Amino acid sequence: MTLTAQQLSEQQKTALITRLQALADDEIILAQRDSEWTGHAPILEEDIALANIAQDEIGHALMYLELRAALDGSDPDHLTYFRGPREYTNVQLVELPRGDWAFTMLRQYLYDAYEALYLDALRASTYAPLAEVAQKAVREEKFHLQHTALWVERLGLGTEESSRRMQDALNTLWLYTEQLFTRTQDEDALITAGITPDPATVKARWEELVRAHLERCQLQVPTVSPLRLSRDQHREDLIYLLTEMQSTAREFPDAQVW
Amino acid sequence: MTASQISSERIWQALSAVPDPEIPVVSITDMGMVRDVQVDGERVTVTFTPTFSGCPALHVIKGSIGEAVRGLGVQEVEVKSTLTPPWTTDWMNADARERLRQYGIAPPAPAGEQLITLEAEPTRCPRCGSLNVRMTASFGSTLCKRLYVCDSCKEPFEGFKSV
Fold first, then answer.
1. In this structure, is residue A257 part of a structural domain?
2. pLDDT bracket for residue B4 (50, 70, 90)
3. What is the pTM of this model?
4. In chain A, how many domains are there?
């Protein structure tokens, strides 16, 4: 059965708005972190690649926010530029400072693998507009995953220094991956109705894919248990990130032309 | 002239002259971006589909569509975008592929159905036609392209991604 916006119950609508915002927030914050490399990446091609990836993620965020707008009339730009750190619902994985190149590529890889698999499952959403967005975004995500998987391989199997940096990055990042698969507020109502996939199912596929690749790249997955965090818990880092990202919009809130 | 006198064929024709802002040798209809044209009395509705969701040219394209249709004397133009079915490079026509090649951009290979894969699709050198090419960067100057070099003729070139 396919659902339209009118057929959603109030509870489903509220839960869906929360989930859409969480999906969008992860994309926005990660894109902002990636864009910090613009002009600073180790080689020109990678500067371009990361800018492309950031641009795609913002494109995905906009699609989610447009779906939200259709439900509650909210404004995507306003939500992005005028919410403070307490109102953002991104996972901590994406707000961690950008670190070195190994950290940046590994974070992006872990996220891309999650996003590609989440979107793959989301294509079966019973809420037609959401299935359409997933269908579109998954086609773009495969390019990110190809790119970052190669970097993990290159650095993991590269020099002593590159594999050490990669292992250091993995030791930190792995702790933050669990949060990607945590249910959002009242998401059970969405999962039961087939509107969004069960994050636990996505996690099972993700772990299989990621562990196999990391092992192939001679990286050891840490055995410590990942952090259990909710999406309203943030690090101080988010404050600085948002201050920079939102500065122009907040300075000139009435600007019509950029 | 009023919209009621305008046929959808004329509108399609006008739209076929709207260039892709990032690759001006092909038009938005060549790219398969225009999905539908509806003429309803005085009102024209054009539905298009974005190529890449984060493509910064989307706003320009939307504006150009409105302009092209208003250029025919139509007052009321609505430009809508749709995600279904998602745009694929398979919709690019043969003539456009050849123009891309002549322009130095390798046209996209068939997109196929396998969406998540770690292998890149085969690409030919637009200059000498060799398949002996290497991808040098998986992203390029725009979201829709990536960079290659041909090991036969040594030419560096851009290739269209298959989506």
1. no
2. low
3. 0.89
4. 1
pLDDT at B110 over 90: no
pLDDT < 50 stretches in chain A = none
Q: Is the residue at A207 inside a domain? A: yes
Contact B86 A63 (CB under 8 A): no
Whether A204 is covered by a domain: the verdict is yes
Is the confidence at residue B114, as pLDDT, over 70?
A: no
pLDDT digits (tens, 9 = 90+) for B66-87: 999 999 999 899 999 888 888 8
Range of the domain at A174: 10-222+231-251
Residues of A with a Cβ under 8 Å from any B Cβ are 45-46, 48-49, 52-53, 55-60, 62-63, 116-117, 120, 132-133, 135-143, 145-147, 149-150
Q: What is the pLDDT of residues B13-64, one digit of tens each?
A: 999 999 988 888 999 999 899 999 999 888 999 999 988 888 878 888 999 9
| Contact: A132, B84; criterion CB under 8 Å | yes
Position B3 pLDDT exceeds 50: no
User: Chain B residues contacting A, CB < 8 Å?
Assistant: 50, 52-56, 83-88, 115-118, 120, 136-141, 143, 147, 161, 163
pLDDT digits (tens, 9 = 90+) for B36-45: 999 988 899 9
* Residue A26 lies inside a defined structural domain of this protein: yes
Separation in Å, CA of A29 to nearest CA in chain B: 15
The residue among B35, B58, B83 with the most chain A CBs within 10 A of its CB, best to mutate, is: B83
Classify domain B3-81 at the CATH topology level.
GMP Synthetase; Chain A, domain 3 (3.30.300)
Assign 3-class secondary structure to chain A. CCECHHHCCHHHHHHHHHHHHHHHHHHHHHHHHHHCCCCCCCCHHHHHHHHHHHHHHHHHHHHHHHHHHHHHCCCHHHHHHCCCCCCCCCCHHHHCCCCCHHHHHHHHHHHHHHHHHHHHHHCCCCEHHHHHHHHHHHHHHHHHHHHHHHHHHHHHCCCHHHHHHHHHHHHHHHHHCHHHHCCCCCCHHHHHCCCCCCHHHHHHHHHHHHHHHHHHCCCCCCCCCCCCCCCCCCCHHHHHHHHHHHHHHHHCCCCCCC
Sort out which chain A residues have CB atoms less than 8 A from B137's CB and list them. 45-46, 48-49
